[in-house]
Design a protein that fits this description.
The protein is of the alpha/beta class. The chain is built from 15 helices and 5 strands. The protein has a 5-stranded parallel β-sheet with strand order 2-3-4-1-5, with helices on both faces. Helix 12 crosses helix 15. Bound molecules: zinc ion (ZN). The site of zinc ion (ZN) has 8 residues, from helix 3.
Length: about 325
Amino acid sequence: MTFESIRGQERALGTLRRALGRGRLAHALIFAGPAGVGKRATARALATALFCKNEPGLGCGACDDCHLLETGGHPDLLVEDLERAREERATASKLSIDQIRRVRAQLSMRGVRSDKKVGIIDQAELLTTDAQNALLKTLEEPPGHTTLILIATNADALLSTIRSRCQSILFAPLEPALIRELLESEGTDPELAETAAGLAEGSLDRARSLAAEDGLEYTAELRTKLDALPRATLPEVLDLAAELAAPRGEKGRARQQLNRATVLEWCRDRVLRAAEATAPPTDGYGHDRLDEVRRALRRVDRAYAISREFERNANSHLAWDRLLLDLRESR
Ligand SMILES: [Zn+2]
């Protein structure tokens, strides 16, 4: 993974390349931006640029260091994320203080293949407060020759004291045309690529899961279930919430994004439909009918607030219960 292979993030890459070129890369960085736009890939590309001895600052993609980075076996790169937390505790929904202790211990050791160490903390918005406080100590006294990259879809969930000690690099949503091109280059049928790119809201991950064999079908089914919510019984609502809260398997993480995005989109569609239905008659505004639009908009606001909560609380059954019950009540 080199900078060359990252698409659609010219600004973020420009900042990183300039910092590398001047030898002024910050010890700690936050890669902030929506899911599925290339933050993890860029973090890996940065590690490649730091470790490659053939083409320092870029990465040659061919040497032993580059190869080890590509296969995930480089001894001087440490990656911590929710998956890692779940290897230790299957039900983990946060990144633990132990993970931060491991990062601290690793970064304070001498490099094996070079004098550098790189740590990547993915899904940093899921760090517990204790873990964030532990991390703060590392940020206050960064060990020499180390680079720590925090990746976050919701950097607001990080303590302000952490944010102020890191250089923030912002990642933008990807253009639909680029997403379409990338999907097509991965072998997706052009028509499906176009549809998925249009629905992906700038996230390549989301586009990929939409374009996957049953992605569009899955979304359509979910929308049908949401349409039926007002008539659903309490157990049915809670069953659906459980299903949405814990999508398992390989596609789990992508599915979770898809679930959230589909619910938000569904709410927005309801607002539009309600607004259309309440087009003011020629003889003045029907105030009681506009109430429907106001109610629908409040529903979108609530759904949005809860969706922000998901980002802090990756897999919360409770949050899904609340959201769906809320949607059922506020028809
Ligand atoms: Zn190399």
